[in-house]
Every structure is written in structure tokens, then in C-alpha cells.
Design goal:
248 residues, alpha/beta, 9-stranded mixed β-sheet, 9 helices, 31% helix
Length: 248
Amino acid sequence: MKFIGIIPARYASTRFPGKPLAILAGKTVIQRVYEQVSSTLDEAYVATDDERIFNHVIAFGGKVVMTSTEHKSGTDRIEEAVNKLHLDCDVVLNIQGDEPFIQPSQMKALCNCFLDNQTQIATLGKAFESQEALENPNSPKIIVNNQGYAMYFSRSVVPYIRNEEPANWVTNFPYLKHLGVYAYRLEVLKEITQLPQSSLELAESLEQLRWLQNGYRIKVALTDIETVGIDTPNDLMKAEQFLKQTKL
């Protein structure tokens, strides 16, 4: 099977404008993401809507495609990139442009999900380590079935544990944190970008619920590595410290 990574990267960001071009230990964030992805998968491309990012990727020797400024999600941007590039592959990985520390083991875990012919979409899950993290609505929770497929994603703490104090929930159930990295079979990517927003998606503001509500099967690969996303300038400073500590 052939696996291609596409990295959606926008210049405009409410919390951190120009984030892909921010410098992280001597390299831009987008270059670090690209190098991580291209060293693991068969090919990698940046999909952007900004000429500054486009020109920068060309300058460091990366592959890049210009896409529309109108997309509402990274999935839509990736689907346009696939069409423009006429890609011939089995699976497309959606690697966020603000995840410079995505690990080869995590990408390989996603790819291995497609050894199961029933897998249409794959994503990553990681065990929660604290009650505080569990209660954070910005860290979606995944409910999986016995075969490792997602049954539901929620910003709420699910399941509710009856007859147990909420402060103890994280030690009484294997709660799973969703890490927002995806992989799609090529034909499935084309299908899901044609779907209208669903009622569950609108309620929770989680795009993956649209796919579940329309009957798509999402396999959840497990990782014990925490991703270090960069959403704000303060996160960039934390990433600098993380880089020094891990010596990546």
C-alpha cells in the first residue's frame, strides 16, 4: 500500500497569525512537520492558501500545493490537494501543520490500521493521565468498541461512572484522549468531504462525528506519546523547551 501525508497549513490564525513560519530552534514549524512526515511516509506535501508558506516550502526543498482560502476544515483542503496533484495512493494521512513532533511510530500505527480491510478512516488515541486533563473540554474523549473502532467522540467526560466520585473516574476507567491526526482511504476522503454537517457534529463541534453519524468506520490506533501542538506563541516557547529536553 502507498501512504501519502498532506499537511494543511494556513497563515491566518486568530491566536497565532503566521504560525507555520514561526521559528522553532532554527527551523520553521512547517519545515519541522514536513521533515517528520516525509522521512516516514512514501511522499509528503504541504497544502496551503498562502504564497509566503508556498514559497518557503519550495525554498527548503519541500513539495507544496496551493489551495483555496475558502475551506472550513483541513479535510476539505486535503481533498482539494489530492485532486490538484492527481495523487495515486491508497491512503492519505492528515498531519496538522502545528504538530512538529509527530512521531514515526504514530504515523506507522495509523498506517497499520489499514491492514484491516474494514478500516475506512484511522485516528490516534492516548490514555488520559490525570482527572484535570480528562475534564478539559478541549481534549475530546473517544469511546471504542471491542474491535478498536470508534463508537463516539465527545467533549464531555464519557462514560459517566455511576456510584463513583468524579474525582476518581480517571483511575476507574481507561478513558481515551483523541489526538487529532487522521488517515483516510483515498475513495473515502472523496466521499466524506461531500457530506453536509451533521447534528452531532454541530452539537459538539467535532468534525469526526459527521463521519460516524453517516456510518463510516474509524479505527483507533493507540499511542503512549503525547503530541505537542502549537496553538499560541506561548506554546512555541513550550515547544522550544520540549525540543531541548528530548533532543529530537
